[in-house]
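Input/output pair, single chain:
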Amino acid sequence: MIPALRADLDAARYRVDRLDELWGAAASAALQRGNRVPASRVLAASDDPAAVLARVFILGEVVEAAELASALPELGVAGAAELDLVAVEGDRVRPRADLRPYAFVDPHGTGEWWIASDLGELATGAALRVDHVLGVGGASTTLASLQFPDDVESVLDLGTGCGIQALHARRFAKRVVATDISQRALDYARFNAELNGVDGIEFRLGSLYEPVAGERFDRIVSNPPFVITPRPPGVPEYEYRDGGLEGDALVASVVAGAAEHLVPGGTAQLLGNWEYRWNADGLERAAGWASDAGLDVWVIERDLLDP
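Output:
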């Protein structure tokens, strides 16, 4: 069924540039601000297959089953439901996943993929589930744009989420291992790799470095759950957000563990947050995690937030 979906998305020209044409600059800017109303109004007047797909899988709208069937002639509504992309409710369909085009440029050239993930709050209007799988966001694109472009034998993507870093890493690595504590995330990552025809990625379930015990890699990339979240009663433990650990403990573990999983001369590229504690400099603490493990380190502090 995934090849049929790929053929339909391609035939519909479900691409970044096509969506920009359909909803225009003003609606695109509104979407970036979390306002989907202008895009919804523009797309409602179009029967273009890409417009129907965007209404369902980006804006999270319920549409007539016949509309979606027209946009997905090879896969069909039943196939989309079997892939768990939609739920059929009589003669209407409700989206169950976010599926959108993603374009990029790297030293290997231009590229474009379709990336599936869970629907966000903008589409659902409800709180996220604790095992929510994020799509491509600002942190994702930041790390992807910083990945070293030189060819290597192996890369570990620690905490792969929807798989976006693993997909980028595969463009210059012969072999990629992608891990995550969430089976739901691995299912999305595997789906995205297959949908975009990317092979050479192995997906493993487990916490931090447990799935790769005893193995070493030329490079480690990680956009781990790094949000510093208070732990009073009633605060949900979102897997994508803080991994269930308190403060900056998860990021410290990722940094410290890298030493045992890099080949000599290997590199790790990570995003993370760190705490400034009473009489303790945060930047020095973050650098200390690496130096204590015997790693050379370069830490860039982009923002400093007061509590």
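The first strand starts at residue 63 and ends at 64. The first helix runs from residue 2 to 11.
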